[in-house]
Backbone:
């Protein structure tokens, strides 16, 4: 069920089990990400949270006073570099916007033909990028889906995961809020 004023995007959550989970938002499954965030939560733990009925991720950043920074006006919301992250109401730390690494681009390239689904990519296919120092990366878990992107204002955007099987409401909602 598509939300009326929303635009359709592709969202991919991925990471090695003991490494931090990464969120990539793309206009199409094969395009370069318009947003890449690293969340302060291990992928294995995030996937456990996905087992709950609904998962809500809230990302908050602070409004800067007018004239702060080099540019005129405020940055686009999704261009903000640092977010306080909450999962189902619990603060998990921070999320950091970053440029995609070669490893990120490899993962997204491997998944370009996947429109929606979840699975595991073997370690020998994706390499060890993103694993904590001194640990083997192991397999890489991913979840990819279409999201409805709803822009509420300059300071709020939401992404609602669309269930391919047409079940009730979204199982995953991601909220970006500048406060």
Residues:
């Amino acid at each position: 069920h598509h939300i009326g004023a929303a635009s359709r995007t592709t969202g991919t959550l991925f990471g090695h089990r003991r490494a931090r989970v990464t969120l990539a938002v793309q206009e199409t499954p094969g395009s370069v990400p318009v947003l890449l965030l690293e969340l302060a939560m291990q992928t294995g733990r995030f996937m456990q949270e996905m087992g709950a009925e609904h998962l809500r991720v809230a990302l908050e950043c602070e409004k800067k006073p007018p004239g702060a920074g080099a540019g005129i006006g405020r940055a686009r919301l999704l261009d903000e570099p640092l977010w306080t992250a909450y999962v189902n109401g619990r603060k998990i730390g921070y999320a950091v916007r970053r440029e995609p690494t070669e490893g990120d681009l490899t993962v997204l390239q491997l998944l370009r033909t996947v429109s929606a689904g979840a699975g595991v990519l073997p370690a020998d296919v994706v390499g060890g990028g993103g694993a904590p120092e001194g640990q083997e990366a192991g397999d890489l878990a991913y979840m990819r889906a279409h999201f409805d992107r709803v822009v509420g204002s300059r300071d709020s955007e939401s992404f609602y995961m669309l269930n391919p099987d047409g079940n009730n409401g979204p199982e995953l909602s991601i909220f970006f809020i500048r406060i």
